[in-house]
């Protein structure tokens, strides 16, 4: 393999080109990472368009000129040309930041004919500084973090090949770490898209440095042949995401005192009225990317200072990107710490479990026990280190245990939740920030033990309990194997059950009412019980579950 | 002359401002695309309507004020030869005060003779309200701004506030409370108890199961930490849950006597955007704020 100790302008041009080629290959993967929190076009496409614009403005780079007198362009000239091309071509948040990275790099290579690893490393630091300056509030866990940590971890004590090799390693480590820094990434189970795009570019650059230059054209961007899905914003839509607004503003001598003008005025204004602001000034041009609900107001304000060179405003509802489940090994998403599987039936109850943090809710329960395979299927859908399983029924626990033994994709922990109430409370009290799984399980188990669950259902045969005697067709209230109330009146059965569950000494009661129960009946029970138990906090949920007219969970 | 400023994050209303001769700085919040300035864009705060909107799923955001806006509030006073005393909400919860100080730097150059006195309540809502009224009392009693600033150094740390909220998603989104466990406790009636520490930052200091226990714990703090409680106001702030506030008041008066000076305020919409509906806090005079 060739070793490069001095980076010249031709090699750098080739590296930029190969960086764009590599990003073209990876752009779909990068786009697909960009699913949260708010859709903002396609990161991969935006970065690619930016880099393409940079490559297109390079002075004719003809490899056959290598080593000849004609290759007189300096490294600085090439870097500057790329940088100004990107300034004009930058699109999207990450595209703008990318253009700043290369502007910083060019700045760091000022007047350089060539650069060794140490010089290039210094220029990378200048790129880091410039990138951080371009965002008003630097958010860690994004492209700027990957750049910064990459630059910090790279070893410049050697040739450029060694520098790039260590740079890529450090960038990859940093990228893998982004979900730890940015909760939205962790929640969505992805790494940062801009960081992934940056890594892709530097991979391509590294390939070119090592002589692996493909003759591929840079891939076209989908954005250059836009397919606007107009149906995504209809006459009935509400403007949920606002407009992605980007422009280049030329500061006008007739409007401002160019020498004294402080662009901070513009930046402060944008930060106040908009979100996702990326803005910077280069000479008399100000480049802005901002999300806003009222682009008109911003444009009017900007015209106080200058005139527009370019302008692009897009309704972000139309930019909403359809995510696909394609995974690519190079950007494999790190697993989250905890996944949760539980079992319930009834649409309301299933939704309630999802809302409180269950990743998968297997339909089932008392009369429909899920199979081992059902559990295995549920596990396979979750990308987590540990999967906590809440069977919510003793008859279901064995199938869960068996699945836990068979499954190899994660550590499965089956918790002893015997009722819906225990499961609901247990899942709700998982501290997802606690990395110690044993502690989490201990605390969840303790909380489940402090919960008591009672159900009201219709008796399918006669039975004798310690406290009640049940006739077929009666409404019966019970907890575990204990029959606690019996009545021909459902409300009566429910109230007596609640009393015998010890409501007087409890703090919170959740109620899930079943599909047979009208909402007003449930609400009247709540009103009566609240009068009777003043200190009890009652939370009513429409569980829509079959079989159980009421599930009472007391804590 | 001295002009007394406070802001809408302190729960003080224009009516009260008129009574105490306070100028009010309106702290904005944003609903969807609309930036709302309390008591500029509306005359009376319809708290029930606002918090019902939050219950229905709206999550407003808040933003810092501009240098220009601060200048517009302060410059006319300086130009008229007045000094300013500003009692404001915690600098530990917003960067708006950095911007304010930038504005003041420039004004200072322009009006070198003028003085700006600042009392950082290291609090929000009912806590600030309590201190604003304390300061109003002191001014009425003839204290100078300088004396009030000295008073605040000793007394601000003696006004704690303990609070909780029903729905934790507002605190979580806001990201301004440290120490919250990453659970879904709101769904199962578990309420973190939060306070404002000596840096004016919100910290979770424990949790209670059920609203009744949570209220009892707030009242317990007044008993345990209180100092000269009856010589000062006890301010209960709530975000559209008057029943819970009334229960807290009942328990406080049961413990301290019916003549306890309890004032109930409604949490302003800007702070309400961070705590959500059904939050309640109690501010009182204490030996000190809890550590941590």
Q: How are the secondary structure elements laid out?
A:
The complex is a heterodimer of chains A (555) and B (292).
Chain A: H1 9-33, H2 43-56, H3 75-89, H4 92-108, H5 117-134, H6 143-153, H7 160-181, H8 183-188, H9 193-209, E1 243-251, H10 264-273, E2 275-282, E3 285-292, H11 295-302, E4 306-315, H12 316-319, E5 336-344, H13 347-355, E6 360-363, H14 372-380, E7 384-390, H15 394-406, E8 411-414, H16 420-428, H17 437-449, E9 452-458, E10 463-464, E11 469-470, E12 475-479, E13 482-487, H18 490-500, E14 508-513, H19 519-532, E15 537-542, E16 550-554
Parallel strand pairs in A: 5-6, 5-7, 7-8, 14-15
Antiparallel strand pairs in A: 1-3, 1-4, 2-3, 9-12, 9-16, 10-11, 12-13, 14-16
Helix pairs in contact in A: 1-2, 1-3, 1-9, 2-3, 2-4, 3-4, 4-5, 5-6, 6-7, 6-9, 7-9, 14-15, 16-17
Chain B: E1 2-7, H1 14-20, E2 22-25, E3 29-31, E4 34-36, H2 47-55, E5 61-62, H3 67-79, E6 83-88, H4 96-110, E7 116-120, H5 126-140, H6 145-155, E8 161-165, H7 169-174, E9 177-178, E10 190-196, E11 202-209, H8 211-225, E12 234-238, H9 242-256, E13 262-266, H10 269-275, E14 279-283
Parallel strand pairs in B: 1-2, 1-6, 6-7, 9-11, 12-13
Antiparallel strand pairs in B: 3-4, 3-5, 8-10, 8-14, 10-11, 12-14
Helix pairs in contact in B: 3-4, 8-9
Give the strand tally of chain A: 16
- Sketch the major β-sheet of chain A: 6 strands, mixed
Low-pLDDT segments of chain A: 35-40, 320-331
Q: Give the overall form of chain A.
A: elongated
């Amino acid at each position: 393999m060739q070793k490069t100790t001095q980076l010249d302008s031709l090699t750098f041009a080739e590296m930029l080109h190969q960086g764009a080629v590599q990003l073209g290959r990876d752009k779909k993967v990068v786009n697909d990472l960009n699913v949260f929190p708010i859709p903002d076009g396609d990161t991969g496409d935006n970065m690619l368009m930016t880099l393409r614009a940079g490559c297109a403005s390079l002075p004719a780079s003809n490899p056959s000129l290598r080593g000849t007198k004609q290759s007189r362009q300096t490294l600085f000239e090439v870097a500057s040309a790329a940088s100004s091309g990107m300034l004009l071509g930058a699109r999207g948040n990450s595209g703008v930041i990318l253009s700043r990275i290369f502007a910083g790099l060019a700045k760091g290579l000022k007047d350089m004919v060539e650069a060794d690893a140490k010089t290039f490393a210094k220029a990378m630091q200048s790129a880091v500084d410039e990138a951080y300056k371009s965002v008003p509030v630097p958010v860690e866990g994004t492209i700027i973090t990957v750049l910064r940590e990459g630059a910090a971890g790279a070893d410049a004590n050697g040739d450029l090949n060694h520098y790039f090799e260590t740079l890529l390693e450090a960038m990859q480590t940093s990228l893998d770490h982004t979900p730890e820094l940015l909760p939205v990434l962790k929640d969505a189970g992805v790494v940062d898209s801009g960081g992934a795009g940056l890594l892709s570019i530097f991979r391509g650059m590294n390939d070119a440095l090592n002589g692996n230059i493909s003759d591929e054209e840079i891939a076209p961007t989908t954005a250059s042949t836009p397919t606007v899905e107009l149906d995504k914003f209809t006459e009935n839509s509400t403007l949920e995401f606002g407009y992605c607004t980007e422009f280049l503003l030329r500061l006008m001598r007739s409007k401002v005192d160019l020498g004294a003008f402080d662009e901070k005025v513009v930046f402060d204004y944008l930060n106040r009225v908009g979100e996702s602001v990326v803005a910077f000034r280069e000479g008399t041009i100000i480049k802005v990317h901002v999300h806003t609900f009222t682009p008109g107001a911003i444009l009017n304000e900007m015209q106080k200072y200058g005139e527009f060179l370019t302008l692009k405003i897009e309704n972000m509802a139309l930019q909403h990107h359809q995510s696909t489940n394609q995974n690519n090994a190079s950007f494999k998403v790190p697993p989250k710490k905890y996944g949760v599987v539980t079992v319930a039936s009834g649409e309301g109850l299933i939704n309630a479990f999802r809302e409180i943090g269950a990743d998968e809710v297997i339909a089932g329960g008392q009369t429909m026990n899920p199979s081992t395979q059902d559990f295995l299927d549920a596990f396979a859908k979750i990308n987590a280190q540990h999967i906590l399983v809440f069977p919510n029924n003793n008859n279901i626990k064995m199938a869960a245990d068996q699945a836990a033994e068979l499954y190899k994709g994660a550590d499965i922990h089956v918790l002893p939740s015997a009722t819906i109430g225990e499961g609901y409370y247990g899942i709700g009290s998982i501290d997802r920030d606690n990395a110690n799984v044993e502690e989490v399980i201990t605390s969840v188990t303790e909380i489940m033990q402090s919960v008591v669950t009672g159900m009201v259902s219709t008796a399918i045969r006669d039975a004798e309990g310690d406290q009640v005697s049940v006739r077929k067709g009666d409404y019966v209230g019970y907890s575990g194997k204990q029959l606690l109330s019996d009545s021909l009146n459902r409300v009566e059965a429910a109230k007596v059950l609640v009393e015998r569950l010890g409501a007087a000494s409890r703090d919170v009661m959740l109620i899930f009412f079943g599909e047979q129960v009208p909402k007003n009946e449930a609400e009247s029970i709540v009103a009566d019980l609240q009068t009777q138990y003043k200190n009890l906090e009652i939370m009513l949920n429409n569980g829509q579950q079959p079989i159980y007219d009421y599930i009472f969970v007391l804590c | 002359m001295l002009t007394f400023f406070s802001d809408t994050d302190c729960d003080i209303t224009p009516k009260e401002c008129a009574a105490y001769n306070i100028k009010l700085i309106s702290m904005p919040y944003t609903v969807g695309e609309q930036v709302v300035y309390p008591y500029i864009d509306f005359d009376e705060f319809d708290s029930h309507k606002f918090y019902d909107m939050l219950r229905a799923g709206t999550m407003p955001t808040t933003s810092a004020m501009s240098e220009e806006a601060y200048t517009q509030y302060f410059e006319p006073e300086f130009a008229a030869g007045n000094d300013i005393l500003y009692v404001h909400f915690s600098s530990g919860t917003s960067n708006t005060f950095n911007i304010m100080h930038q504005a003041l730097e420039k004004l200072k150059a322009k009006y070198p003779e003028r003085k700006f006195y600042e009392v950082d309540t290291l609090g929000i809502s009912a806590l600030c309200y309590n201190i604003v009224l304390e300061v109003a009392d002191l001014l009425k009693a003839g204290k100078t701004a300088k004396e009030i600033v000295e008073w605040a150094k000793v007394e601000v740390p003696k006004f704690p506030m303990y609070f909780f909220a029903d729905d934790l998603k507002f605190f979580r989104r806001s990201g301004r409370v440290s120490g919250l466990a990453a659970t879904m406790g709101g769904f199962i009636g578990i309420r973190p108890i939060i306070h404002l520490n000596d840096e004016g930052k919100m910290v979770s200091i424990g949790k209670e199961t059920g609203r009744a226990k949570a209220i009892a714990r707030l009242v317990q703090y007044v008993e345990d930490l209180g100092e000269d409680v009856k010589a000062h106001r006890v301010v209960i702030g709530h975000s559209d849950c008057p029943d819970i506030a009334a229960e807290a008041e009942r328990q406080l008066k049961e413990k301290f006597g019916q003549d306890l000076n309890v004032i109930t305020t409604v949490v302003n919409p800007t702070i309400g955007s961070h705590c959500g509906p059904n939050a309640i806090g109690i501010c009182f005079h204490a030996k000190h704020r809890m550590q941590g």
